[in-house]
Amino acid sequence: MDWISIVVFVFFMLYASACIFITLVGLPGTWLMVAGAIVLTLCSTIWTDVQLWSWTVIGICLGLAVSGEIIETAAAGLGAKAGGGTKRGMVGAIIGSMIGAFVCTIVIPIPLVGTLIGAIAGAFIGALIGELSHSDPIAKGELAKSATGAAIGRVLGILGKSGIAAICWCVLLIAPFV
Predict the structure, then answer these.
(1) What is the pLDDT averaged over residues 144-163?
(2) How far, in Å, CA of 120 to CA of 16, rounded?
(3) 145-177 burial, b for 16+ CB within 10 Å, e for fewer?
(4) Count of domains in the chain?
(5) Can you give the residue range of the structural domain that contains 159?
(6) How many angstroms separate the CA atoms of 19 and 114, rounded?
(7) In 3D, which of 141, 150, 129 has the Cα closest to residue 81?
């Protein structure tokens, strides 16, 4: 690896580290990391004859990013189900977390915090609405368990996605030297 590749690689790894941290607040850090790796792979021929990463490594990172999204999206619904909720509660938690993240990003002007608060509150409210829309009456305690499970599931989903982003970071760190 020549000196310009090393400098670019170091700056990219710092950028990728920041991507892991923004994943913790529910933003698409893994996708930004993979997009940056794709751009560097395409542009690396400008300063060297050797690519930093092979297309196989990029494909592995894309697969990791997809699995991170699946984990994050499904976690709220699975949390509602683990709390004793129905399928309506699961769907409500998933839809509520997406809507909550979007709305609170606009309503709460604190960068990154509004998205995280909105996703967790949206999962709770979505599961609650989903359970209330069910034809069979459910006890208030069961509603709270389902909604709390959805909120906890959303938090665990964000942590799982951040773990996937860290794995992607490690793959991108090690691959050029193997």
Answers:
(1) 90
(2) 25
(3) bbbbbbbbbbbbbbebbbebbebbbebbeebbe
(4) 1
(5) 3-177
(6) 18
(7) 150
Q: pTM of the predicted model, to two decimals?
A: 0.81
- Give 21's contacts (C-beta < 8 A, 6+ positions apart): 29
Show the CA angle centred on residue 67, arms to residues 124 and 128, nearest 5°.
10
8 Å CB contact between 101 and 125? no
Name the residue type at position 60. Answer: I
Q: Which two tokens stand for residue 163?
A: 């773990």
Q: How many of the other CB atoms lie within 10 Å of CB of 178? A: 6
Q: What mean pLDDT is predicted for residues 10-29?
A: 92
DSSP letter for each residue of 40-106: HHHHGGGT-SS-SS-HHHHHHHHHHHHHHHHHHHHHHHHHHHHTT--HHHHHHHHHHHHHHHHHHHH
Tokens of 16: 């990728």
Confidence of residue 171 (pLDDT cuts 50, 70, 90): very high
